[in-house]
Design brief:
single chain, alpha+beta, five-stranded antiparallel beta sheet, 3 helices, 9 strands, 29% helix, elongated
Length: 144
Amino acid sequence: MTTTDTMVRLARITDQPLDATEVEQAVTDPTCGATVVFTGTVRNHDGGQAVSALEYSAHPHAERFLLTLCAELAAAHNVPVAAVHRIGALGIGDRAVVVAVAAAHRDAAFAACSQLVDRIKHEVPIWKRQLFADGLSEWVNAGG
């Protein structure tokens, strides 16, 4: 494999629609026999309530947090990683996050991808506001 510096193939926060193929291709590596791609999409419900849309906002340095986190995970697992998170207004079915990890074997790829998704959700300063069909809204995981 390559050095840790080149193991983070993509780490970006954007207000543009996400391309899962771009993220998967970023980690394509001839030494890897398994690639796991996670795509998080906006669903139409949460906690028994109808959701109409989501709004994501991010700290100005959120992309730096994402890059650091990806580098830590890539080094810990010795795998190439890529992660892109969207901000702004998203509708039902829109992609909110796409993460890809490649590894020699599937168990390692699944484990690293799952860990990366969990860490992004809990460590990168991106906040989600859910808009409900009844006109109400709430911030999710925005507490300190």
